[in-house]
Write a structure and sequence with these properties.
CATH class of the largest domain: Alpha Beta
Structural class: alpha/beta
Strand content: 5-15%
Number of helices: 10
Order of helices and strands: EHEHEHEHEHEHHEHHH
CATH architecture of the largest domain: Alpha-Beta Complex
CATH superfamily of the largest domain: Spore Coat Polysaccharide Biosynthesis Protein SpsA, Chain A
Strand order of the largest sheet: 3-2-1-4-6-5-7
Shape: elongated
Low-confidence stretches: none
Distance between the termini: 26 Å
Helix content: 40-55%
Mean pLDDT: 84
Number of strands: 7
Number of domains: 2
Largest sheet: 7 strands, mixed
Length: 318
C-alpha cells in the first residue's frame, strides 16, 4: 500500500464528508493505493455516525473511537500502530489542511529520500491570539532541539512508515514528533510550504493550556533522549558541581573564622556569615542530586528496554 492517512478528530461531523471526498479525488487522480484512518477522540456530536456512513460505502475507510477524549497524541499513537502504507500522513479533520499537498510530500519522501516532511503554514488564517504564541513556541523549539523547522505544530506531515513505528506519542508530544524522530536517528527532515485554509465549520479544540504543557513535554523529550539510559551522567555532574561549590564555600567560611581567631577577634560566629547557609544548601542539594542519580540509574538498569536500540539495517543475521 502506498499511503496511510491518519486523521484525529473531535466533533468535526460537518467537515468529514467533504474531507473524505477531497482525499479520494486526489488519491484516485494519482492512482495511489491508500487507506484513511479516522481516530475519533471521544466526539459528542455526529462524527462517529458520519464515519460509519463513509465506511459502509468506501472500503478504504478505517476508524477507531475512544470512549472519552484522550487528546491528539493518543489518537496519533493509535493511528500510527494501525497504518500499513509506505508513507504515513497526518492531517487535521477541520479542512484547514489541503489533501492536494499529499502527492508532492509523498514524492519528497521517496525521491528526495527524506525520513519525514513537515508542512509549513507560511500564510496562516488564524487569529493573532494563536499566531503570535505559535511563532514564539516555534522559535523556542528550534533553539532547544536544534531542528530548524518553521512550523512544528502543523498537522500536515508525511513520514516513512518505519519512522512512525519507532516513536511513542503521548501527552502533548504530537507537536514534537520531528524531535523524537531525530533523536531516534532519522536525521533527514524536510519541510514544504503548504496551503492553510480558514476553518469552515466549528471551532478550535485547543486552549491556552497547550502553551504550558507543550514546553514541559519538549524538556522531557530532550532530557529522556539524552540521559534516559545514563541518568547518572546528568544528576552526577550537577550533583558534583553543587557539592564542590558547597565544599569550597565551607572551607572559605572556616578559614575566615580561623583568620579572625588568629587576629584576636573572638566574637565572630560562623553562623553570622551568610555564606555558611549557602554552603549548607549546596552540600544538601549536591547530595540529593547524587542520590537521585543513583536511584534513576537503578530504575534505568532494570527497565525492560534498557538494551533496546534502533537498528536501520542488517546483513546475513538470519
Amino acid at each position: 500500500m502506498n499511503i496511510s492517512i491518519v486523521i484525529p478528530l473531535l466533533n468535526e461531523a460537518e467537515s468529514l464528508p467533504e474531507l473524505h471526498a477531497w482525499i479520494k479525488r486526489v488519491m484516485d487522480e494519482h492512482a495511489f493505493s491508500y487507506e484513511i484512518i479516522f481516530i475519533d477522540d471521544g466526539s459528542t456530536d455526529e462524527s462517529w455516525s458520519v464515519i460509519h456512513g463513509l465506511q459502509n460505502e468506501n472500503t478504504e475507510v478505517k476508524a477507531l473511537k475512544f470512549r472519552r477524549n484522550y487528546g491528539k497524541s493518543a489518537a496519533l499513537n493509535e493511528g500510527f500502530a494501525l497504518a500499513k502504507g509506505d508513507s504515513v500522513f497526518t492531517m487535521d479533520a477541520d479542512l484547514q489542511d489541503s489533501p492536494d499537498e499529499l502527492p508532492e510530500m509523498h514524492r519528497m519522501l521517496w525521491q528526495e529520500n527524506f525520513d519525514l516532511v513537515s508542512g509549513w503554514k507560511k500564510k496562516r488564517y488564524d487569529p493573532i491570539t494563536k499566531t503570535i504564541p505559535t511563532k514564539l513556541y516555534n522559535w523556542a523549539t528550534r533553539k532547544m532541539s536544534g531542528i530548524y523547522l518553521h512550523d512544528f505544530n502543523c498537522g500536515l506531515k508525511a513520514y516513512k512508515n518505519e519512522v512512525v513505528k519507532s516513536v511513542e506519542v503521548y501527552g502533548e508530544m504530537h507537536r514534537y514528533i520531528p524531535v523524537m524522530a531525530h533523536r531516534a536517528g532519522y536525521k533527514k527532515i524536510g519541510e514544504k510550504v503548504v496551503i492553510h485554509r480558514a476553518r469552515q465549520y466549528g471551532e478550535t479544540k485547543f486552549g491556552l493550556s497547550r502553551f504550558i504543557r507543550g514546553p514541559l513535554d519538549l524538556l522531557s523529550i530532550i532530557f529522556v533522549s539524552k540521559f534516559g539510559k545514563r541518568p547518572m551522567h546528568f544528576f552526577g555532574f550537577w550533583g558534583a558541581i553543587a557539592f564542590l561549590a558547597g565544599f569550597f564555600l565551607t572551607a572559605y567560611v572556616l578559614i575566615d573564622k580561623f583568620i579572625a581567631l588568629s587576629n584576636g577577634v573572638t566574637q565572630t560566629l560562623v553562623t553570622n556569615n551568610p555564606l555558611f547557609y549557602l554552603a549548607l544548601v549546596m552540600l544538601i542539594v549536591g547530595s540529593q542530586l547524587f542520590m537521585g542519580g543513583f536511584l534513576a540509574e537503578m530504575v534505568s538498569r532494570n527497565a525492560p528496554n534498557r538494551n533496546k536500540y534502533e537498528i536501520s539495517e542488517h546483513l546475513n543475521l538470519d
